[in-house]
Amino acid sequence: MTGRTEDQKSARVPTPLHLLQVLARTLNEHLAEACTQAEADAHKALEKLDREQVKLQEKLTEAQQKLAARQQDGDKPVEKVTAKIEELTTAMAALSQSRDEAQDYIRQLQQDVRQTLRLAKGLDRIDLQVTQAIEKRDNPTPAPRSGNRQTPRRTRRKPAAAPAADPAE
Questions:
Q1: Which 3-state string (H, E, C) describes 110-131?
Q2: Low complexity bias located where (predicted)?
Q3: In a domain, 149, yes or no
């Protein structure tokens, strides 16, 4: 005995057909997982941008309220607060552009995922064809005979009799 268990024997890839089957299945699984992960990562990035936008909007609202309060008092300088509002407004515009780009990316990613998975159906067809080839190889069945045709039998022909010599000659 070589020390292998029965599970180890069944786990090895005995033929190129089995290897192709394993490759097609593995590639299909990894591709589906990668597509799902890419979409999840893109949505997480967009959610992070949304949270940043909420925080930035809160800071902008506070700065605007501070500016309004200073303008009512009239005795405190407003230049510092005005500069902060401009800075926050610029940051909001940049963040808004980043969010738009992230949303565009997600839309494109979803289209790419759909197309990728549609194209990957070819891997399912390969898997099916390989499975059928393995089954056909492992369980050969005789080809069904058609009931209308009979296959001609090969028979030996008797050698043609040599023409008898004519005694009249």
A1: HHHHHHHHHHCHHHHHHHHHHH
A2: 160-169
A3: no
Tell me whether residue 158 is in a domain: no
Domain housing 130: 14-138
Overall pTM > 0.70 = no
CA dihedral 13, 20, 124, 136 (to 10 degrees): -80
Encoded tokens for 3: 């020390």
150 burial type by CB count under 10 A (0-12 exposed, 13-18 middle, 19+ buried):
exposed
How many CB atoms neighbour CB 21 within 10 A?
20
Residues of the chain with pLDDT under 50: 1, 169
Which among 134, 136, 135 is positioned nearest to 15, based on CA atoms?
A: 134
